[in-house]
Specification:
Shape: globular
Number of domains: 2
Strand content: 15-25%
Structural class: alpha/beta
Distance between the termini: 93 Å
Number of helices: 12
Oligomer: single chain
CATH superfamily of the largest domain: LCP protein
Radius of gyration: 26 Å
Helix content: 25-40%
């Protein structure tokens, strides 16, 4: 009888050890397989593709880059009319031709190839489910600069100022288009709505952790993330200051191909990849204080006889996230070498700016004590602000790079 009891005790002990070991293994395996936890533990940038879908096609697509260590983010807007060669049909067409609502992998892969990255996560919101998500987070707050009054059936009415959109209003806001409205304004409106949505999802994520609410939220999305991973990611989004997020759009040349107006990315797609690398470098830079959030200003001066060179270069620099505050002509048009005049006082920052243009000709201009005192008092009238950098374009600049290596 004693032996039987001993054997039973040993068997019970073995079962407990197996169960405990299995539980520990399961927890460790879950942590290892959770991409958000992996990214956090390995100090990596997390990127997520968000698609707002209308009638089976992307109305807008955004890749949101987020770096947990600095809580900084950047967004890349991918227009559906981006043109590319599609090997499987052997023709040039829009990137959204590849979109399949049931399987977005081909579309996702092309966006990753365009940006030079691997997409970590994806979230697809149909128009109907977008409205449900917006109502679930109690609306999306945005700023509308001018009142909108369109007396169609149904009418579209939005007051000016800070407004909180419910689900129905959100659907109307991102889909309406005015005949006389420039495409850039439509794009900008949708970008601001997207940032408001991300802010709302982050702020309300605490309430969305309730098991019923979490399941409901998850059911409104088509995503490769499980519920735990999505909640963990949206927890991180709560730390993003959306007012400071740089929003980049794919730039390029518009051409009509087979009756379609397609946007072909600049420099065979190499420019947008460089902008992504620059944005990632900015996100992961570990400066402390206000410098980490600062957007640096640039003055672009054309020192050549090439008409429009300063304007085209300004657009290039805006793509990289710089604030071009003025463009114009230099004091003469026969500069041989491109020159950067630095007033920022931060050597690593100006070096990063110079790398964008492959320019090594940098002149440092320090402000005297009087100028610094004036800069500190921004209430003074008639104060002429000096940019962080002045870029004087010379003959060695080919529109993208300084070419002679200096």
């Amino acid at each position: 009888m004693k032996r039987v009891r001993t054997d039973a005790s040993l068997l019970l002990l073995v079962i407990m050890v197996v169960l405990l070991g299995g539980g520990v293994f399961f927890v460790l395996r879950s942590l290892r397989s959770d991409p958000i936890e992996e990214a956090l533990s390995q100090d990596r940038v997390i990127n997520t593709l968000f698609i707002i879908e209308k009638e089976g096609k992307p109305l807008c697509s955004y890749v949101l880059f987020y770096y947990p260590s600095t809580k900084r983010a950047a967004v890349f807007d991918i227009p559906g009319e981006v043109g590319l060669i599609i090997p499987r049909i052997n023709r040039v067409d829009r990137i959204d031709t590849l979109y399949d609502p049931q399987k977005i992998s081909a579309f996702e892969g092309e966006i990753g190839s365009l940006l030079g990255i691997d997409i970590n996560n994806s979230v697809v919101l149909t128009m109907e489910n977008l409205g449900k998500i917006v109502d679930l987070i109690e609306g999306v707050e945005i700023f509308i600069p001018a009142a909108v009054e369109i007396y169609d059936d149904p009418p579209i009415l939005f007051p000016s100022g800070i407004t909180r959109l419910d689900g129905d209003k959100a659907q109307a806001y991102i889909t309406y288009e005015l005949p006389e409205e420039a495409p850039e304004l439509t794009q900008f409106r949708r970008q601001r709505f997207f940032m408001g949505l991300i802010q709302g999802l982050g702020e309300k994520n605490g309430a969305l952790k309730n098991s019923r609410m979490a399941r409901l939220c998850q059911s409104f999305m088509k995503t490769n993330m499980n519920q735990h991973t999505r909640i963990r990611l949206f927890d991180e989004y709560a730390g993003i200051d959306t007012d400071r997020v740089g929003i980049h759009s794919v730039g390029g040349i518009n051409r009509v191909v087979s009756g379609q107006n397609l946007l072909f990315p600049s420099y065979d797609g190499n420019l947008i990849k460089e902008i992504v690398r620059q944005a990632l470098s900015s996100l992961t830079r570990q400066e402390e204080g206000a410098l980490s959030e600062r957007i640096f200003t640039v003055e672009v001066l054309n020192g050549t006889a090439t008409t429009g060179l300063a304007g085209r270069t300004a657009e290039l620099l805006r793509g990289f996230g710089y604030d071009v505050i003025s463009i114009g002509n230099a004091d003469r048009n026969d500069y041989e070498k491109t020159e950067i005049i630095d007033r920022s006082g931060h050597e690593d920052i100006v070096n990063t700016f110079a790398e964008v243009l492959r320019c090594k000709n940098i002149r440092y201009e320090s402000m005297d004590r009087g100028e610094l005192e004036i800069e500190a008092d921004m209430d003074l009238q008639n104060f002429e602000y000096k940019s962080d950098f002045t870029l004087v374009l010379g003959r060695d600049f080919n529109g993208r790079y300084v070419t002679d290596g200096q």
